[in-house]
Amino acid sequence: MTVDFSSQEVIGALAFIIRSVAGLIYIVSILQGKTKPHLFTWLIFTILTAIAFLAQISDNAGPGSWIMGIIAFSCFANAILALRYGEKNITRGDKIALSVSLGAILPWILTEDPLYSVILVSIIDAIAMIPTLRKSWHKPYEENLTSHSMATFNVLLSVFALSNISATTILYPLAIIVVNTALIILCLWRRRALEKQTGLL
Fold this sequence. Notes:
Layout (H helix, E strand, L loop, with lengths): L6 H25 L7 H20 L7 H20 L6 H19 L3 H15 L1 H9 L6 H16 L6 H31 L4
């Protein structure tokens, strides 16, 4: 008996494995006290990725949707850990970002247009990253860039695993790639700047 796997299934499975490993690396880093996740960011990410996962399923995304499912689970785990191990300095700006993000979820629920929903989710995702970007500006070493880089790469892989490529299925993964890349660049730039200030370079 032979089992045939499509290229999308192989890529989807590979992306799923990479994301699982990246998520585990991030969780270990949190437990070791090296990474301080921001609760607001991961709470919103949990809601958004769950929404995007359901949207992709409804638009027959196929294996490409697997990665969004595991991302939703990972985000939920990070949000839970953030309650105890996360960033404790919550600013007014963080609260505003959370309020705007949560407030934008209602229009998503009310709309019947999947594309409009994904556009909203992508915008909310960018807003939800603001607390983490703000924290990383001051504390660039409190994010695990290995995990973020792997997560970004596997989302890119998931795009190639999509059975149906449309604006609805591809927009949010691309938004994640852009936002994650921005975080990685910010952390690297700030780390280098701080090292120069302390005379390490």
